[in-house]
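Re: Re: ligand-bound prediction request (bumping)

Still looking for help on this. To restate: I need the protein modeled with inosinic acid bound, output as structure tokens. Inputs repeated here so nobody has to scroll up.
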Amino acid sequence: MRVIFVTANTNKLEEARRYLEPLGFEIEQMMIGGKAPELIEPQFDDLEKIAISKADQAMSMVPESQKSDCAILVEDSGLFIDSLDGFPGTYSSFVFRKIGVDGILRLMSGNKMKACEYRAVSVLVLGERKIIAEGVCRGKIGEKISGTGGFGYDPIFIPDDSDGRSFAQMSREEKSSISHRGKSLKALSEAISSPSM
Ligand code: IMP
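Reply:
Sorry for the wait, this slipped through. Here it is.
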């Protein structure tokens, strides 16, 4: 199946390819005039509502003649810190650009409640249908920046399913085997291959 992923984030694209291509999906990045289109991110507290809004915007950019040939994939994700009532949550990308991982470490200094989770909601539009799948990865905020891999908050995110290493210290394969994105893409691929589809 040909899947057009609407994202400007090449890390997300790479993770989706790594996960979905071995399952037989062909992943392309949506490009308009040589650039990934910017989707407006509405200010909701709910990733699913944002992802659905992005999917609707993306669909309106696909020419009618191509709508039946391919599926459209969008994803919205974020880091939710328990003791900060889920902050930065749906504002993760904005907060990362403003204060980065150093800012989050400052906010969390002296706070012993480090539990948090990454969440991702993927939406695949297949003709008239929308398949929605969520993935959650529990973890904790580290005491310091560790590792250089991954992107975004990965150097301070230590997944519970780890030996103490942050996502930024893991190989890409290790990260996607336990990550929120890997889980949401797995659920999506299972939903597509289910007999009721
Ligand atoms: P959005 O889905 O484009 O709104 O961006 C989500 C933001 O959450 C990203 O820009 C990152 O800051 C953060 N984020 C989501 N997933 C990950 C991840 O796998 N690693 C690191 N940061 C992430």
